[in-house]
Structure formats: structure tokens, C-alpha cells
Amino acid sequence: MANHDDHSLLKQIETIAKGLSDTFAPFCEVVVHDLTHPEHSILAIHNNLSGRKVGEPTTEMGLARISSPDFPALVANYANQFADGRPVKSTSIGIKDTSGQYVAALCLNVDMTLFRGMQSALAQFTSVENAPVEEHLEPSGLETIRLRIDRFAAKRATTARALSPDDRKSVIQALRAEGLLELRKSMETVAQHLGISRATAYLYARQK
């Protein structure tokens, strides 16, 4: 970059690159390219994951921008690969000068190896099998309370948490009349399902 304005712009890009790499370390490599010197465009490489060095040439993406100012300024989340075969998710941001020509690029390369390993581990951890019998780990009848409230709300074309105060009072008193509020943790279940406090649920239950 020849003039003072371009040099100042590049220094700001380097600062942004450093901030991004510090934020997303150790998973993201951030590279600053000077596209006015494509044969040795890499000016800075933070959190180096690709093994490249400062002074190495630009990539095909950089050459495409140099050849055409109409090339997209932002190419985000495209599949890429490091030299050793590791899968990468890349984003490339082109920067133009006042004349509309690309003069620099800021590139982010995320190593997907660890994330794919974590994804596989989580999938294995969260997988479940069918049991020979259906088992419930909550006091018997609490699901009946939830279903009863949901049916009440459905008849009014709404949801349990969107019921009006009068409707909440009505459904709680209906539950009391059916004996469902005698169940252990019934009021806690009612309050949670309606999105109200237990104190309010008890108040509605006592009212006539």
C-alpha cells in the first residue's frame, strides 16, 4: 500500500484482526492480506493454524478480488481445508480504497476438527434407548394437572401461560374440585405451568 491513507487503513485492519483472534483463540486463525502486493500479501497472521508465514502470497480468493472490483466483499462460512487436511470454515472480507479497488482482505479460518469431535461426543452422550416399560420420575398425577390446564387453555384458543387472571382462577378451582390439588407438589406444578407465583396460585385456589 503506497499512500498514507491506505497504510492507516491497514493498521486498523491489523488491530481488528488481533482483537478477533484473541476473542476466538485457539479455534480461529485471522489473516490480514495486502492485495496490492499479491505475491507476498500476508502482512499478519494471528493464532496461526495453517502454518503459513508473513510474506507468503495471496490465495485464489485474493486473486479473484484483485481481478474484479465486482467480486463480493463478503464471502462467509465457506468450506475450506488446511494443508494437512483439517476441515475449515472460512470467511473472507475484502476492503476497498476510495477508488473502489480492493486493496486488502481480512480472513478468518476456523478449525472444525475439535467442534466436530465435540458434536460427535454430544450426539453419543444424548442418545437414548427404549426401556421395556414406561417409567415416570415425578409424583403420579402431575402430568394430569398439566394436561388438564392445556385442555382448558386450548378450548379458549390460547396457551396455559397466556390465560387471563380470571381463567387462571377458574382452572385452578376446577383442579381443586377434581381433587388434583391434593397431590404432592401440585401447587408448584400449577404455578410453573401457568407462569405465576405459588403465592398467586394459592390465592386463586382459596377464592370462591
UniProtKB/TrEMBL annotation:
Designated name of the protein: PAS domain-containing protein
Organism: Kluyvera ascorbata
Pfam family membership, one: HTH_22
Transcriptional regulator DauR-like HTH domain location: 145-205
Residue ranges annotated for the YheO-like domain, each copy included: 10-120
